[in-house]
Specification:
The chain has 162 residues and is of the alpha/beta class. Helix content is 43%, strand content 17%. The strands form two sheets. A five-stranded parallel sheet has the order 2-5-1-6-7. A two-stranded antiparallel sheet has the order 3-4.
Length: 162
Amino acid sequence: MKYYIVGSVGSGKSTLAIKMAKILDFPVYHLDEIVHEPASEMKIGNIKHSDDEIDLLFRDILKQDNFIIEDCLRERFTPALQQVDNVIFLDLPRTLLFKRVLIRWFKQKLRLEKVNYRPTLQILRKMLSWIYEGPVDKVINLESLIVLHNKKEINKFLETLK
């Protein structure tokens, strides 16, 4: 079974992917890590893989029988929407996403949460703007779409996997 979790920044994609992986015993791929390689401890910021490397890594994932991938749905990965069994769209309220992004940024700024980039005000602005650029238009007509709007629906979905 192949799952693709999409949603805005702060929607809980990584958290859901990890919970699903524990239940299903599937590998999880965070597409941020396919696009960027974490920089060494001496540097701040990530190193972007080449387009060829990204394509190769992504094709290798899609060849597997079982996996969970998660991403905010970058344009380059949209063809995978037709190659997975289920697309899970985390469509949480924007006020909650706004709150989560602010809390995450402050934790990163105070070094309470590990991050591979410098948590600047510019990054905060970008993350807040991404809340309003969700993947709704790219997934809304998919037959394999599962839309989850809140924690209750997410927990109910996880129960169905057990």
